[in-house]
Amino acid sequence: MYKRFVAFVEQSFQRKLLGFHILLVSLTTLFLFFYLTNNFRRITDFSLGENKRGITQTVEEYLTIYAQEKATSTWLQLAAAQDNLTVLGRTAQKVVDDYDVLAGDTAVYTLPLFQTQLVEERGAWTTAADAEVDALIPPPIADNADARELLTVSALLNLNMDAIFDADDNNTLIYFVGNADTPVTRAYPNVHLVEVLGDAVSFLFWRDFFPDNVAVWQRWYTDAALQARTPNPITVEAPYGDAAGQGTVMTMFYPLWDGRKNEFAGAVGLDLSLDKIIEDVLSIRVAETGFAFLVNSRGEAIAMPPQGYDLLGIEQTLIDHGGLSFNSGLMSAAGETAVQDLSATLQTQAEGIYQLHLTADDSSHLVAFASLPPLSNNQYEEDVWKIGIVVPEAEILQLITETETAVTDRSGQINAISIALVAAFLLIAMFVSAQFSNNVTRDLRNLSEAAQKVADKQYDTDLTIKSRDEIGQLGQTFNAMTQEIRAYTTNLEGLVAERTEDLQRANAEITHLNEKLKDENLRLSAELDVARQLQMMVLPPESETRAIPDLDIACYMEPADEVGGDYYDVLQVGDSTYLTIGDVTGHGLSSGVVMLMAQTAFLTLSQSGEYSIDHILASLNQVLYRNILRIHENKNMTLAVIQYDQEKFSIVGQHETVVICRKDGVVEVIDTIDLGLPVGLEEDITEFIGSQQFRLTPGDVMLLYTDGITEAENGNRQYFGMDKLTDLLVQYHDLDAKAIVDGIIKDVYAFIGTAPVYDDITMMVIKQK
């Protein structure tokens, strides 16, 4: 490049003179420009850095104080509930201490306030639904005289149960429960426990709902060291979804002690609604997207908005314990290492600021946190709740960012003006020099340009030279020469021009057609790629299949074309798990569309509250039948639907044979030919739908597949076949589901070798844990 530039300048005296002036002005201007802008940038960067540190410190102090205030307001609600429970607990303890005297004075229980009128319902003794106070003797102790006496004496608590309940809007239920042998219940307000409990009405409260609590409370009353370390006997349970529809509830217990018999005498409980506390936490908004969360000592989220779960990567798990359902979402189990470190910091520090950097989206956040005073869990271990406030640093520093952007923009404007001035000076210098050199060398330049045109075969060039010296004579000679050349080439140029025009026209048409074909191919390829991505996106991810608690599930699907017609799904709805597998006739884009219709219809029906797989299959068939008519395609699909609940399976629908390998290697098959018709073939297949039930015990394996496996061909046109598939299942059945799938698929592709794959290959392995 440099050599070419030097050669260009040396070819003209005018260029040399012009280049000297431009170089002199440019060097001087650029030196001053860079010196001044560099100093300006350094001063600006220093000012912005100081402002950023000041704003960050102010925001951290504000967030820390804000978190402390929210922790205090949250604790006041919990402390008020504990105070109310303590009043009721001490009242109940006095009743226990004077039980013999109070039980002997039967006259007091004839007063309307202390009467307990019981009726028999569902094998239990209970008060009427319209009574002010709820009372319950469960069926196992319905004939126990001690239980009836205890329930009668507990009526003395009617004196203050309503006042204690009304003292706090967060209270949902307060109640007294007897000892382990006579766990009668007296509750306010009357929720009619015999109906709320349903089939659990026969459960004994301590044995079936809180089996570990009694032993811990006995240890508190008999262990002086434990009492000294934890003076307050109240324990709290993990928050859970209340069966009576009271939202998220936390239960507190105040245990009672029979000093005469030196044994556990029951407890008074308080069900506290956390909805207001959770609502207060979720209502915290800082900046644009900042949010707050509430966690316990283990790092389990008690209150967190959906964007918090998504940002921190916390997955919620439903846990059943003692007849109650708990949602558990551990920060320590998050995929991000930074979130795990945050969880460890919350467990070891009472309050502070944590710098959280998430690698998933390369974002930084400030987390301010503060602690509530400790509660005691049902093991008398400290449970210290933490309130955290998460704010993106980008939003905190938005003012600095905007200022920096404004400064940068202004600097750019100044630079642009400076560059424009330099360019203007250069243009003026170039103009003056060019005018001078133009007047001196005009005739030579015209002659040079005319000669170049002739060299380029422009023979119709006319040269006009005003000079009358030797250059003028040279110009006249040049004009005579070009006239002779023009006359010689006129005929030849006409013929060449005609042929060239024809060739250019044909070439343009070919180019246009080629571009149209290229665009069409790109469009079709993009549409098929989108369809394939949509198809693969709706298949259940591995995280969902792993969430099935007592089934080990692994799946595999590979379409023969860009878009396949095979379909499988795994859904957990309520207590049931639904497994589906199907195969649309043919393959390609239209089969993939039918597969997506089936998946969407099945997901909608299963989530709509319809739990009968017979009805689900019949309704899905009607939806698919009408959609296939609408798209004018001759398609249908085999489809099997399996419902699972506690080692029991029910299957409907016509598909490939279901293969079951028992733990001892014995193989069983289920023929689905009589369990339905292909979906989408007829509008109503209700009368053809049949069902079959079976069980899997731990270690048993069930294999679902499509005919792309059994009908896979090798280079010799031999089918893989059912026998090979069954033998492989027996061979691998001791492995986990993922290893079974990997082993079978590896053997299938080894069998196919280099032969083409004609059909989609799909497989699902379900192993009973």
- Helicity range: 40-55%
Average the pLDDT over all residues and give the rounded result. Answer: 86
The count of helical stretches stands at 21
Q: How far apart are the first and last residues' alpha carbons, in Å?
A: 74 Å
User: Domains counted in the coordinates: how many?
Assistant: 2
How many strand units? 28
Strand residues, percent: 15-25%
In the predicted model, the low-confidence regions spanning at least 5 consecutive residues are none
Structural class given helices, strands, pairing? alpha+beta
Shape: flat
Please describe the biggest sheet, giving its number of strands, its sense, and whether it closes into a barrel: 9 strands, antiparallel
Rg over CA atoms, rounded to whole Å, is: 43 Å
Q: Describe it for me?
A:
It is a single chain. This protein is an alpha+beta fold and 769 residues long. It has two domains: 433 residues, no CATH class; 229 residues, Phosphatase 2c, domain 1, CATH 3.60.40. The protein has 21 helices and 28 strands. The strands form six sheets. Strands 1, 2, 3, 4, 5, 6, 7, 8 and 9 form a nine-stranded antiparallel beta sheet that branches. A five-stranded antiparallel beta sheet has the order 11-10-18-15-14. A hairpin with a 4-residue loop joins strand 14 and strand 15. The longest helix is centred in the N-terminal third of the chain and has 85 residues. The chain is flat, with a radius of gyration of 43 Å. The two termini are 74 Å apart.
